[in-house]
Amino acid sequence: MDQDHIGKFPASCRETLHSALRAAFGSIRIDKIAPISGGVSGAFPFRVDIGDRRYVVRVEGPTRPLRNPHQYDSMRIAAEAGISPKVHYIDEPSRVVVMDFIEVRPLRSYPDGPQGLARALGELLRRLQATAPFQSFVAYPDMVDRLWRWVCQTGLIAPGLLDPYTERLAHIRETCIWEPANLVSSHSDPVPLNILFDGNRLWLIDWENAFRNDPLVDVAIVLDNLAPSPELESALLRAWLGRDPDDELRIRLVQVRALTRLFYAGVLFSASAAASGALADDDLSAMPTAEFRHAIREGRLQLGGEGAEGGRGGMGSGPVGGPPPDSREIDRGRHPFIQGLLKSLPEPDTNWAVEGRAKWLQAAANCFDLMYKGSGEIHITAKAEPTRSEH
Fold first, then answer.
1. How far apart are the first and last CA of the chain?
2. Domains and their CATH numbers in the chain
3. pTM for this one?
4. pLDDT at 77 over 90
């Protein structure tokens, strides 16, 4: 195995990566190893090229308070059913897996357009829920409640502003029937980033949240992300059920959909609360999704600052310290994304942790992807100063 490839990666995952490659491929020559960007789970995925074959080595990130201990069992079941890429090696204690690499095409290029994609998604969920049941982990309403209570304690939102949503969550937990006998294998996070299209079929990846769950949880998440119209919703539900849904199911879908939306709102609020300089927000009003996307394309919303129309351009505020007032004329010629990045820079001589700098640089790389044409990937890695024992 070529040690030069391994030496390029952080010391924290170097030995794990080496052991996984050795166990999966032995002494076969590795032509290339490159990090894969784009995920948000905190894992460290790498693409490995061996001849004309490509693989993914995925090293799980830092342990979370609510880590799912059954994720690798779920991944095995899904891979054996052909729902997840083929798995070649798993080391659960080291939290690393080697699997096939999928050459991805945009979901929007799926044959027959959004209708075809909606049907394929419904069929994918039906196949997943027909597999051998995943392990039980936690009741989904309890998981949402735990996350939401934490959000309410962060101080991110002004007191009382989240009370209607907290009351809605309590009402759902009291009235929504959650029968253990009805739970099925569930991905529990089938957002677009975790659904791959290879030009022929769909795949599900990233099984960190996969456990036995209510069948409508995955359906609700996919509907909100990829089937936004009544026609697409009906197409997906028919493909999933094999029939038209009845009124009882649609009523329950409304409740489960509220739960999944509160969960992802909690995830986003948590990320905002963790950002340096986040202030208590006293207004939760928001523009419609279509208008939001249009504003981004036109440059009327900017990252971490004020939009051209006075609206907020990001979730929470970034590090304190923007350009002085006399720089506005200079800013006027810059793209709003660049203005937002510059305004989020701390003042010179500020103690700015290397992790924060890496996040800022990765945000800049993501903005460049939106602003400029061209292929390739940019991956930013924070590397702490070595201790004396590492010299």
1. 25
2. 3-100 (3.30.200.20), 107-274 (3.90.1200.10), 289-371 (no CATH)
3. 0.73
4. yes
